[in-house]
Structures
1.
Amino acid sequence: MENRTSDIATSHTNSHSGSFETHPKGTQARILLTSVFGPYAQDDEFGSRSINPMELYHNQVTRAQGSFSLRMFHRSWGIMMIQANISAPCAVLDFPTRDDFARELKANQYDVVGISSIIVNVAKVREMCRMTRELSPQSVIVVGGHVSAIPGIEKMIDADHIVRGEGIAWMRRYLGEDENAPIKHPAIVSGMRTRIMGIRLPERKGGTAATIIPSVGCPMGCNFCTTSAFFGGKGKFVNFFETGDDLFEVMCRMETELKVKSFFIMDENFLLHRERAMQLLQRMKENGKSWTMSVFASANAIRKYTMEELVELGVSWLWMGLESPQAGYSKLQGADTRQLTRELREHGIRVQGSTIIGLEHHTPDNIMAEIEHAVSHDTDFHQFMLYTPVPGTPLYQQMSEEGRMLRDVDYADVHGQFKFNFKHAAISREDSKRFLDWAFWRDFELNGPSLYRISRTLLAGWKRYKDSPDARVRERFAREMGRLSGIYSSALWAMERQFRKVDREVSDQIRALRGEFKRESGIMSRMLPAVLGPVLLWTTRREEKRLARGKTYEPPTILERSNWVEA
Ligand code: B12
Ligand code: SF4
């Protein structure tokens, strides 16, 4: 395993070159860490795009599902991680407007302003550097995150330091702290302001999973993969928590602090590190922990486990790349992904597939069949993304050398949900968008709302494991089923009616599933739909109308201070 203090985090220093410079005030320096400003889901001159909202599901997974789309926001975990691991007074400003950012700069004398951004938001970084120079001229400006991989970024923005790769070690070093000190994991609630079918779900303590970030990067090194490339590329990654024991401790702490039993494991390929996962399982068993985990993993990594091991580990949600088998990615080697998906779902594991549109071998003649193949996996969720050479990746390097990168494509449009940013051998830029949109629509039309699909997988898991000899496993399924069966049944009642106009067959399948829920679950599930079902149908239809009028959602602005002393 790569040590997290490897030489991965490098920095370009605009003002000085040569040896590493530390801040003169060290840990007394006052730090502001901020994400880029919103609003996001609109078209503007700073690179916001209405088709690129600050949302995960609605941006790239359920965006064609109308009122059934899962809407939620996620905090900027990178800067939260940095804040938790420095002892200087630090404020994290998440999702500010320009006014919020200006106000914060003026209200406090910051010594360092750290801006976190990905590539699409480079124009916002430029503007935030400009604003900082004007409103807080004494501040040193540090820019980090994926935006730093843009070639020539030094000339595009007015920053003092541009940090590539892992930022905790860099910031600790900059403040003169021990960069090798153990990582302290902040308490992170994974999502917020969740909406579906026109209602915002209540937020109660422990109701939403905690995010755990065991490592960053991925050693598989797929040619297009920006996270892998950013943290060292093939064969490398940066580990925050080496062992299953370390992870177990962090998770216990989160269980107590956030009152959760459910974890979103933010690791590009969590299951690849089998030794760590199995040690974690061992500790969970010894301590009777009935936890639930959502993980990312490649098919070849999943194959290292039996279904029982995955279930015992509490894996209930799995995000897996389904790239075309003809593309030859080693992460898929030997895997029949359709069979694997079916099997996982039969064991109650919700699968989120991820398919790339516009691979090198795709042509207008074969792309429909490839999309049909992807959709036939019948995953619970399906992300589609355009093949996109992103700065910093081997693919970008190769395309640049071949002279195939398109000039004049605004970085704000390089997010994989619009049009190609390179010259494809067989598919035009315009068609790339048509095929992408069709893939989303086809998946929705054929397989129905994701909410229906996850209810089906949950029920399959419950039926299989409700009498499991392992008390931890029994408890987990009973917990999910007990809490959700009435809600799911009511949602199915409404979905069945609303989906009739999209596809009668799917509507009938939803009805059949509702019948099964009725048979399998308790009194709430039988009674609740009569009351809640019509309400949900009404809110769903109201939401459809709102969306048709162009309604969008934005994350709230959040300001959190640590080690703070008033100036
Ligand atoms: C959570 C997430 C989101 C959240 C938003 C989070 C937020 N508040 O911004 C949501 C779901 C909304 C989202 C949306 C999008 N995302 Co996103 N997202 C992620 C995800 C899954 C996790 C990010 C994370 O927390 N990682 C863990 C932390 C610890 O790592 P980190 O953020 O990189 O931070 C480290 C370093 O980068 C650095 N660092 C970061 N900031 C700073 C700041 C300073 C000052 C310093 C010194 C260092 C530093 O230090 C940190 C600790 O090591 C990543 C994938 C991934 N595995 O990282 C994609 C990822 C960041 N997203 C990506 C993309 C493309 C998007 C979208 C365009 C959607 C899309 N079409 O794919 C939209 C953009 C929305 C918008 N309008 O801006 C790409 C970025 C590609 C690139 N090269 O720019 C990634 C890498 C996914 C991928 N593999 O393609 N995303
Ligand atoms: S397996 Fe997934 S995370 Fe790892 S390099 Fe490939 S695409 Fe990236």
2.
Amino acid sequence: MSVTTVAAPMADTELDQLSIDTIRTLSIDAVQQAKSGHPGTPMALAPLVYTLWNRVMRFDPEDPLWPNRDRFVLSNGHASMLLWSVLHLTQTRAVNADYERLGQPSVSLEDIRRFRQLDSKAPGHPEYHWVSGVETTTGPLGQGVATSVGMAIAQKWLADRYNRPGFAIFDYDIYAVCGDGCLMEGVGAEAASLAGHLGLDNLCWIYDNNHITIEGNTSLAFTEDVATRFLAYGWNVLRVGDANDLDRIQLALGIFRETKGRPTFIILDSHIGYGSPHKHDTSAAHGEPLGEDEVRLTKRSYGWPEDQRFLVPDGVREHFAAGIGTRGAAARREWTTLFESYRVKYPDLAREIEQMQRRELPAGWDRDLPVFPADSKGIAGRDASGKVLNVLAQSVPWVLGGSADLGPSNKTTLTYPGAGSFQAGNRGGKMLHFGIREHAMAAIVNGLALSKLRAFGATFFIFSDYARPAIRLSTLMELPTIFVFTHDAMGDGEDGPTHQPVEHLASLRAIPGLVTLRPGDANEVVEAYRYVMQLRHQPAALVLSRQPLPTLDRRVYAPATGVARGAYVLADPPGGSPEVILIASGSELSLAVEAHEKLIAEGTRSRVVSMPSWEIFEQQPQDYRDSVLPPAVKARLAIEQASTFGWERYVGRAGHVIGMRTFGASAPLKALQEKFGFKPERIVTSARELLGRQ
Ligand SMILES: Cc1ncc(C[n+]2csc(CCOP(=O)(O)OP(=O)(O)O)c2C)c(N)n1
Ligand SMILES: [Mg+2]
């Protein structure tokens, strides 16, 4: 007679602990195997992430793009193994760039074994677009929390526009986990201040209060009262004194969900490297493998088989399936049914939501874009931009944005009736007021774009430096964000060199994938926006003049639609075949045109190439590029009121650049143009010199 022994079913608390220790040991093993990474924080935060995902979050692992899912942001991105473990254990599915579900796991156990290796879906830091289920790229501390504020603004705006009685189409929450670093960084403070002001009660930050950063204890450099700071920002501040207390964590998250009118900040007291006998509570647990011996000792302390690596015990995946899997699937099913009846009742709104999710544009979106008549006095780039933005914000319902307190100068103010300001009491407002917080603004714009809104953020071009880390992430994430930078050069003369960009164009052009556009007249501004609006996976920076620029007569010169090719032949000598090429962007375009007319009059065969965007031009086929800049024509002159850095690639060794080699100065624009040589006469002289004529 054979006896079948049946193991007693495991109690839920045992499964909870087993799941948590699985996250811990997967993290430990992956870092040990990679010989690099950050084990200590995943060891400490496994209970938090477990509780949040398996007990609270509304997320269906079957469809990580379900629009009403709760968002999870790991702002302390170095703890990425938390995310890889939980995406693996919940069996989250992969999706592709066309938003199709692929059926395969987002993160496989093999990926985790190959943590931090080439092509692994478990890279060093969370990477949006690379791993399904990652809501935003993190790693530069502070970016994640700041981006989460954009996500929270987006949810409020979406709910206001699309929810109807009985139809809570958008009612999701945003959770962001952060460490000491995120709270030391200025961008975190900027974003927290704005979130408090806006009363974003759909936003919950959980602060890993472990008193440890890389150099040691936070007593070295971070001793402020964080709780009081967040109270002062207007947040609801809670404290969970033991990071291993699942019920307390769950309770705090429950209080968050019930809190109205303000965001929630949960201070979670934790121990980095929890369970490691020698590294617990030390910075040694932060950013290096525990070491083989310590791994064993740590596993022993968890009651884990010491020699097993990458172990996922029986019952753990099932436990996640029974928790988040079941809850998430039910939530998505309910939502899908709800959306079907919503579509019947509100077909237009449903269509908008679907278009927005696919990053498409509504029919006729560009019908009302202005056409500017020729005008020698002209209009400033920023003014033309303002007119365009006011059209776009009306023709594309989900276009919204604002400025870092420079709306009246950037001309980004939305002036049409009903545009409104987004505030706690007006969630449908299309105008965002970021305050003087450029860095948070750019991160928030990223959060809005991650939520599928078409968002813009504006400031003076000089202060793009203050936003640069988030612009870089925008590009890394392939988000269609729009950055509007006005006062593009020395046009604000009297403000002086602190306000005059020099190296900024070169620095933006150096970011791989970012589209930089510096249009040369009002119609080029329109065409620049037309191009940018059609981007689905690339951010753009529009660099616009403060001062009026002549609106070129397009019956005489080539149409501004050439902007869509990055650079185009604006003017040519009669019959073509130029001997010298003048290349210009922005405010220097009309100077080049003036010089060209003089050169033609004296019998010099000059061509003017308008080059608003290097990046777009580089994407054109070689024959087009050669037709604009014929290789045989070596006499080339670039004119741009910015650093000359990089122009060699277009003017060649035989060419010349009229640009900036120093900072500017404080004086009226005319005096500066004189001093720095941005005059048609200077262009004419340089062109003659290039041709060896006096
Ligand atoms: C903007 C930025 N500066 C510096 C770093 C390098 N860095 C990574 S983690 C870290 C320490 C973070 O401390 P904390 O946030 O407390 O994380 P913990 O060690 O507690 O997990 C630093 C300085 C970074 N990733 N981003
Ligand atoms: Mg810390």
3.
Amino acid sequence: MTTWLNMSLQDGASPIMEQLVFFHDHVLMIMLMITTTVSYMMITLIRNKQTSRFMLEGQMIETTWTIAPAIILVFIAMPSLRLLYLMDEVHNPSLTLKAIGHQWYWSYEYSDFTKLEFDSYMIPQEEQQESTFRLLDTDNRIVLPMNSPIRMIVTAADVLHSWTIPSLGVKTDATPGRLNQTSFSISRPGILYGQCSEICGANHSFMPITIESVPAKYFINWVSKMSE
Ligand SMILES: [Cu+2]
């Protein structure tokens, strides 16, 4: 989760998010190069007066500064498209989780098991404890096994919502009458937080998402306990 003074992206908890962070840094480096060059040129132009009666055009430099930005754009577009298609792929999932957005809570269905479904409400401020995070913790956390490919099916029961976990690089619209799909695999154990990311009404800010990422054997224990 984000903590104080974290001005950048959260640490990636999935391979895709790791790649997204690399891409973000890569684009920032290119932007740094462009801003440095352009501001150097602008400052020189302002501070110097260079005029020539005979220099009316410069074919060479004009060709260069038309083509160079196009080449730079290719270096941004290529890795961007690679990531886009990588995120779209569902790699042989070992588990499917269905999230349904309601006004104003999420409900979850583990369709691989019988009768494993629950609602997940935010813990209200009055019931806060030392260990809970305000506006982020839920009464029933999603439990998922780490290091296994997971397929998410996202939908809504009333209005538009959006199921989001920043540290996994996942954001999917929850639309009534539609099933949207994404996938991810969590690379470490821990608790991951997210919030509804589509303005869905008065309590939009109060329907967080909490994932408990655990090793597979703990997950199996949890499943058998839940479906008793
Ligand atoms: Cu919502």
4.
Amino acid sequence: MERIGLVGLPNSGKSSLFNALTGGNALVASHPFSTTETSVGVAQVPDHRLEALARMSASRKVVHAGVELVDIAGLVAGSSTGEGLGNRFLAGIREADAICLVLRAFEDPNVAGGDDPVDDLGVLELELVLADLASAESQLERRRKAAKQDRSLEGQVAALEKAIRALAAGTPLYRAALGRDERDELRPFFMLTNKPVLAVVNLGEDAAGDDAAAKPIVEELGGTAEVLGVSVRLEAEAAQLAPADRAELMEGLGLGEGALPRVAQAAYRLLGRRTFFTTGDKESRAWTFRAGAKAPECAGVIHSDLQRGFIRAEVVHWDELLGLGSWSAAREAGKLRVEGKEYEVADGDVLEIRFNV
Ligand SMILES: Nc1nc2c(ncn2[C@@H]2O[C@H](COP(=O)(O)OP(=O)(O)OP(=O)(O)O)[C@@H](O)[C@H]2O)c(=O)[nH]1
Ligand SMILES: [Mg+2]
């Protein structure tokens, strides 16, 4: 399963964010480097389409899609050469498929660390860039030699050289002007900054819901990464409450549903995930598939028997189904499409699989 790694300075609130999103209980403490081992958890991804389908079907159970998060040890200036927890954070990031930068903007005299998220970003990017530069340079000569034997590797060498130029100028690869092909060529090198990124600015309680507070980071990363402002401690505490109390607190603070659902949704999108639905009185459920997957593969996400014995799928897009009011109404209106093994499932499709094993 693909994962998003939480990357940030010590005391930026990574473990707090991890716990709030996954319901986990990673250690949260005001001393730096509280996290030494990575924890993995699954965050639910709220989806208004699923909720609407569940209401339509009067489903007794609703199951959201999930996205896997990894809480990684904090990173400090010099980590790329072994300071702090050194290689531990590097290994954690290498194993992640995408990165969520956690940047601290909250002020708290009891929690060591600064409150300027732009400073955090600078430190983080420098360490990631230095680690990538060292690994890229160490591989360049060998790749050049190999390309002399095998000309099909020339594109890889050219991409590596271009990456090195960007990194040497201090630019993380996610900010560099690289084409999709060049990014693909760099894949075998497992660069840290060649992964998709998202940024969470951890706002103080007094700045919760204030969009302007995350603006300096939007200015830095705009166009490259989605940036979300979240008052992590406040929302983490609210997440502990019963749903009704939580809603009342958040409404009282003018925060609506809060920013956590948006973080989970952004993480899900960042991994390029797609969703299809099943719906009925027993259960409405969101299922995750990869873009481009055909109907049998999607059936296999539900159960391997459904893939093995796949006959056909009945399909209707979620909004069309809602408009019609029920699965049987859609059938009567002739709106259920019958699709075979070659059908590429679309994000938002509602499926019913016919199978025989
Ligand atoms: N005031 C305030 N404190 C926060 C906020 N978010 C986290 N903290 C506090 O900051 C401290 C560090 O939080 P953690 O979640 O442990 O930070 P971390 O990034 O996981 O830190 P390391 O594991 O040491 O790298 C804890 O005392 C938290 O309660 C916030 O939004 N406001
Ligand atoms: Mg931690």
